[in-house]
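Re: the 348-residue chain
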Amino acid sequence: MNVRVTKLLLCLLSFLPAAAAAQGGPPPAAVRVAEVQSTRLSPSIQVPGTVVSLNDARIAAEVDGRLTWIAEVGATVAAGEPVARIDDAELLLQRDEFRGVLASQESRRGFLEREAERLRRLAAENNAAKNRLDEVETDLQSATGDIAVARARLGQIELQLERTRVRAPFDGIVTERLRTPGEHTRAGDEVVRMLDPANLEVVARAPLSSLGFVEAGTELQLHSQWHAGVGTVRALVPFGDGRSHMFELRLGVPSSAWRVGENVRLSVPTGSPTEVLAVPRDALVLRREGASLFRIAEDGTAERIEVLPGVGAGDMVAVSGRIAPGDRVVIRGAERLRAGQAVSIISD
């Protein structure tokens, strides 16, 4: 009985290698790759920033009065359109009053002009007419001055009437109502807040040690929780706070990619660029024993290479090790990849 069992086991053992060979081993792993690049990178640090609007205003009333209407939050308003209205009934009455005063003064001046013209014809022969002419011309000058005053007062009333419409200073969106219709407001009281979502910038603070490596026009890498991009330094404040030793950066960004209030991180250089070999950050496999990456060998298998990471800029990081420019390294699918395993390269 034992002899039969032993023979059976030997047969099974001799069959296993053939079965494994017939199966051909594990299937190729699907991976994405990128090439090692020779490029210039600067040492950098990551600093936090916030996306803000270049135009973010709290718009105030310019005349006293009762608010009759305020634009709703979320309303899109073009520059010059009203965002609030103030009761104008009293000002309309004052306008009508001064229009009447102006009409009366102009009528009086017309009469005096005709009277002066008549007296000029008589003054050559009649001394009494000459004295009367002097009086009329004096009254005519006074009437002309009264008309100028009346026109100025009427212009003031019309300007106040125009200001009962609180208008948007730029194209934007109403983000907050600071008053409620029916409330009485005074000149200078804030009524609504609105911002322009089409003109954005990133505001950040960086160490003073970076000041020598950043200037207007410098492009910096940005990324947030959802996406990444590039911002161009629009302005900087070239001095720092004595306690924080930080200076302010402002970067222009496209409005199509970012949103007001979004938190971002940006890479700010801290040194001069140097020539390095760089790979995408996703190529690094980080373990407790160190960093490595998988290089695709000529026979289509994965080869593990130990590397030492260096400076990073955006999605790229400098590495040193047994790699050369043009080597293909795995950037997706390396998590379960084993050294010597065949790979199948897939495109984006």
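The CA atoms of residues 288 and 306 lie 13 Å apart.
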